[in-house]
Amino acid sequence: MKHIFTIVLAFSWSIYSSAYAQPYYPKTDNEILETLPARGKSWFEIRALRKRVESNPNDLPKALQLVRRYIELGRAESDPRYYGYAEAVLTPWMKTAQPTAEVLTLRATLFQNRHEFPAALDNLNKALAQQPRLAQAWLTRALIQEVQGNYAAALNSCLPLLKLAPPLTARVCINSTLSLSGQIDSAYQQLNRAVQIAQTEQPQDKQWAWIALAEIAERKGDAEAAEQHYRKAFQLGISNGYLLATYADFLLDHKRYDEVIKLLQNETRADGLLLRLTMAEQQLNLPEADTHIETLKARFAASRMRGDSSHQGDEARFMLHLLNKPDQALELAQMNWSVQREPRDARILLEAALASGKVSREAQPTLEFLAQSRLQDARLQPLIDRFKPKKIS
Amino acid sequence: MKRIMLMVFLSLGSFSAMAHKPSDSYLALTVESNHVHGQWDIALRDLDYAMGLDANDDGNITWAELRDRKEAVYSYALNRLEIAVNQQNCPLKPTDILVDEHSDGHYAVLNFQAACLAEAQQLSIAYRLFFDLDPQHRGLLRLIRNERTDTTIFSPDRKQVEFVLSLVRKPWQELLNFAYEGVWHIWIGFDHILFLLSLLLPAALVREDSSWRPKQSFSRAFWDVLAVVTAFTLAHSITLSLAALGYISLPTRWVESAIAASVAIAALNNIYPVFVHRRTWFAFSFGLIHGMGIASVLLDMGLPDAQRVLSLLGFNLGVEAGQLAIVSVALPLIALFSQYRYYPALVMKLGSVCIVTIALFWLAERSFDFQMNIL
């Protein structure tokens, strides 16, 4: 396994390094080599804050403020460098004898962001042992446990939010967990009611609720309701990469390729969105598909090169649907499955297993998980049925 | 009740919303005989975050802004890299700064030399660039030597790597290794084989009254050959040693041309005999030239400093062993066929004509320095 990785590494390096030009001397002094990103007002505030933190290394509130600003900027710009800066600011506070609950929770958020779930949970458990009323820690823990497919634990993490967080937040947390573990209909109704009556909630929370509701409707096989909920989520006018991705998947499932292109044509920077755009372009036989496939190849190679495994789910879809390499797709989907177990992770694994013909052994753990958790999903069911032994007629 | 703003990360699952790459630098080290050349690509954006390259704070980094801070950039970066060869630290000397584009923007390309006196057998690299500012930064190393390339990744958990470039062999292993090279060189070096063969072809004949006759006994032929081979060996061992240890040095083109000429003359001598009774001296004097030719191979391979004499001895022994193997196969055959009437004309002269032709091609190629692609 290690050898394979090394070979892949060397190989991807050779592709990657050949794709770029030779070093050169710029022609003139005034030639602009690089335009620095995000030089707005908030960057200058952050820079001033950074100086203050550097000169007052014992000021925890200022340090945490800086960490939060970096995380916000990282999310707004979809730029992982800011998470790295946040981690650097947090590191000295993690090394103290007893890091505070807030420090631990922020550290967990950074781990979560890189899909390092066990480390994130470890920090959250320590934070909650110290400060059981820390809503953020409960919520982050619930979200991670849900992604891991640990629905009972996720539900336990959601429950304290009924007292500690705005009502809608707790409702979304609880009902999306229940919807995945065999109670899809009642969860849908409860969440639908909660979001209708919510008045004073933050728009971000409302958007999260509409997205959760749309996803549940999709799993129920109710495309019409899902479409309506997605529209509500978009109407709130908050740009959200996750919403674009999940709605694009919905459109792809219903062969609405033109709409995918309209939705994502300016979103080529994020790998996950570029993947979905390229899938639509390929279905319509557009010439852009080829260049986008090359771009994606280079990007996946780059993230592999640095040992980043958080793209494996997307990469598996890329391998299967765009490169038609089911064996590699299955291997990636299996590695992805060992980290996270959302319905879409199960789906790519089953699709890759069926395409590669390796139906029995490789897919077995996933099929068992789906049976045990009583997960209902209209998109997964036909795939699951294809694994069942054929009846003798 | 204070409103709590909770952060909901929906970039979970298989969706990754990252539009950019995390911070990486690309370090390529090329190991040469007594120094290491480095090319280090570092993102301008990262350098700006670390040390503020944007002098006028307009959000753009220009070539002038980078070049004016060249020294500071080099000292910042090179202070965070250590290269040690055979456990000795190499001073890192900046050479030239350039610019290159990677998938996430422009990078400063820092070229530098790690001047290490000894030939690198063990290389250790310690890397700590940007780890204090961004623990997610990674250093992607490519180590290039001969035809091999190794890659590895530096991270805060893995700041140091070691490479064993060439195993320090035990003396007898070194001797064997060079002996093998010596055998191999004789085996693939047609010019030496042809020279020797030219000298051996008439070994079992005597020249009487302008014609060739078989020698009376095998033992006379044997002693004759022994004398010729010993003279050749002695001569090329002398010049091989002197050249390999650096006491004499002649232009390769001259030496190679002279070797080709020597083959031609040796073969011609079988057709128009001139040195019939002085073949031993003939072998000795041309052996001197062949020795220098053999030495050039050894010099190209690079003699290890520590065991020069031993490796020279090994190489020489290998050359002799290869030579003896050829003689021990060729001599019985030559002695056998020399008994036949047609041997002098058919085998010796015709064979010599072939050898002269080949040698003249070589001579032309080597002296005029072009390639005929025939041989």
Distance between the termini of chain B: 94 Å
Rg of chain A (CA only): 23 Å
CATH topology of the largest domain in chain B: Growth Hormone, Chain: A
What is the helix/strand order of chain A? HEHHHHHHHHHHHHHHHHHHHHH
Number of strands of chain B: 13
Which CATH architecture of the domain at 166-238 in chain A would you pick? Alpha Horseshoe
Give start-end ranges of low-pLDDT stretches of chain B.
11-17
Estimated radius of gyration of chain B: 32 Å
Number of domain units of chain B: 2
Biggest interface, which chains?
A: A-B, 89 and 61 residues
- Care to count the β-strands of chain A? 1
Can you walk me through this structure?
The complex is a heterodimer of chains A (393) and B (375). With 393 residues, chain A is mainly alpha-helical. Chain A has a domain at 166-238: Serine Threonine Protein Phosphatase 5, Tetratricopeptide repeat, CATH 1.25.40.10. Chain A is 73% helix and 1% strand. In chain A, helix 2 packs antiparallel against helix 3 and helix 14 (241-253) runs antiparallel to helix 15. Chain B is α+β, with helices and mostly antiparallel strands and 375 residues long. Chain B has 2 domains: 24-164, no CATH class; 171-368, Growth Hormone, Chain: A (Up-down Bundle). Chain B has helices spanning 44-51, 63-68, 70-78, 171-188, 190-200, 218-244, 252-271, 279-301, 308-337, 343-368, and strands at residues 24-31, 35-43, 60-62, 81-85, 88-89, 92-102, 105-115, 122-127, 138-145, 148-154, 160-164, 205-208, 211-214. A 6-stranded mixed sheet of chain B has the order 6-7-2-1-9-10. A 4-stranded antiparallel sheet of chain B has the order 5-4-8-11, with no helix packed on it. A two-stranded antiparallel ribbon of chain B has the order 12-13. In chain B, a hairpin with a 3-residue loop joins strand 1 (24-31) and strand 2. In chain B, helix 4 (171-188) runs parallel beside helix 9 (308-337), helix 5 crosses helix 9 and helix 7 (252-271) runs antiparallel to helix 8 (279-301). Chain B is elongated, with a radius of gyration of 32 Å.
